[in-house]
Amino acid sequence: MPKLKNDSTRRPIRPLQAGFTMIELIMVIVILGILAAVALPRFYDLQTDARMAKMQAAVGAIKSASAIAHSGALVSNQAGATGTIKMETLDVGLVNGYPSVSGIVIAAGGLTDYVTSTTGTTLTVTPDPSHATCVITYTEAAAGAAPAIVSTALTTANCD
């Protein structure tokens, strides 16, 4: 007969469980293995997506900085001029009323998280030195035209 708690309740006392059973441990290991098999390939592919998102953020920064600088040039009556305007106490160089190559870097916040290079009137932006084909280009404005901002090279193949 099992031990009784006391005479008034007459319930048997259960022994305390000392740990996990072997089957419980095996089931946890199996579930973790399945989750790892499904999740790891997804994490591997996120590097390319993150790099493309980073470059799309740079495109947005360049486009908005160009528009803000151009509107500042219009307000200060420098729409077709070459000169400078102030943007948050910084001098932004203008060419035909839009930021110059050096001016767009300042206007877009410095682009310090990117690799930038200048060739004449064209600025090239890449995410890092090992992904030279994942590129954005900014070409200074010609007379009567807006600057060319080209981001067609932001593809999975180029940014992988």
Structure description:
The longest helix is centred in the N-terminal third of the chain and has 54 residues. With 160 residues, this protein is α+β, with helices and mostly antiparallel strands. Helices cover 41% and strands 19% of the residues. It has three helices and seven strands. The mean pLDDT is 87. A hairpin with a 2-residue loop joins β1 and β2. The strands form two sheets. It has a four-stranded antiparallel sheet, covered by helices on one side. It has one domain.
Q: Could you name the key traits of this structure?
A:
160 residues, four-stranded antiparallel sheet, elongated
Count of extended strands: 7
Radius of gyration, whole Å = 31 Å
Give the N-terminus to C-terminus distance in angstroms: 71 Å
Give helix % range.
40-55%
Low-pLDDT ranges: none
Helix and strand string, N-terminal first? Answer: HEEEHEEEEH
Strand order of the largest sheet: 4-5-6-7
Beta-strand portion reads: 15-25%
Question: How many discrete structural domains?
Answer: 1
Major sheet, described briefly?
Answer: 4 strands, antiparallel
Which class do the helix and strand fractions yield?
Answer: alpha+beta
Quick one: overall form?
Answer: elongated
Oligomer kind: single chain
Individual helix count: 3
- Mean pLDDT, all residues: 87
Describe, in short, the structure shown.
The chain is an alpha+beta fold.
Question: What topology does this entry show?
Answer:
Elements: H1 22-75, E1 83-87, E2 90-95, E3 98-99, H2 101-107, E4 115-119, E5 122-126, E6 136-139, E7 148-150, H3 156-159
Antiparallel strand pairs: 1-2, 2-3, 4-5, 5-6, 6-7
